[in-house]
Amino acid sequence: MFPSNSSPFDQSADQYLNYLLVEKGLSKKTIEAYSRDIIRYFNFLKKKGISDISVADTSIILKYLTALRDAGLVAESRARHIVTLRGFYKFLLNEKLIEYDPMRFVDLPKIGLKLPEVLSVEEVKQLLITPDIKKPIGIRDTAMIELLYAAGLRVSELVNLKLQAINLEGGFVRIYGKGSRERVVPIGQYAQKKLDDYLKTGRPLLLKNHVSPYLFVAGAGKPLTRQGFWKLLKKYAQEAGIKKNITPHGLRHSFATHLLEGGADLRAVQEMLGHVDISTTQIYTHVARQHLQKAHKKFHPRG
Length: 303
Prior knowledge:
The chain has 2 domains: 8-105, DNA polymerase, domain 1; 121-294, Orthogonal Bundle (hpI Integrase, Chain A). The chain is built from 13 helices and 3 strands. The protein has helices spanning 8-22, 28-47, 58-70, 75-94, 121-128, 136-151, 155-159, 188-207, 226-239, 248-261, 266-273, 278-281, 285-299, and strands at 166-167, 172-176, 182-186. The termini are far apart.
């Protein structure tokens, strides 16, 4: 990450890299590669006398890609730079730090997406029994992990949930996701039970004499941060003996994958995940296809 006294260039990059770490759950190695790409791009802009990221247009980006080629970078390396910049500019646009995305005019090569690791159902079960439910924090953490997996939430959606978003009697959670789009997702009996326990015992003990509109609370009734929950999840995964790189986004991915493996309709999964475009949801189907291929090979007489 970039130092706190860095330039506006570096500050925007730091926000993006933190987003990749917390929201997307990318590995440290991958984020370091993205960081190197962005630093190289910023150095190019500075040499061109550009000090404001919003000034860089498509023609500048194409000149940068040409410079990479002239420097001897192979096509695969240049493709990674394009993917880095596409994600970076999309983030800046979503955060309203720029008014338009100059990368939308840049053709991108067809390359595979590296998806987060999927937990097996047994690994999810092991993760869920790891927090110490004799303690208020353990009751809260169990409820958070259970809800994250049950509803396929983004970590930002989870930590910002308000009390009124949960309907235990109806068995659903109401979420306001990206672009303030609302969706309603069923949560199932296990999540209902853990949330009921948390609301009756864990939450009052954590709040003490404070009042908070947030469902999941930390000290003085404040909501748990994305980074805070990410660290908790890492800790519980380690205690559970899970060797995979587990992130909040990985649990969301596991939610989608397990539903598809169980025969859920892709459109239904799209709606529960809050994806506007079904093509976004389709990236989750590759693991489900692998599951079907393995089943066919194992059980079909001519598999």
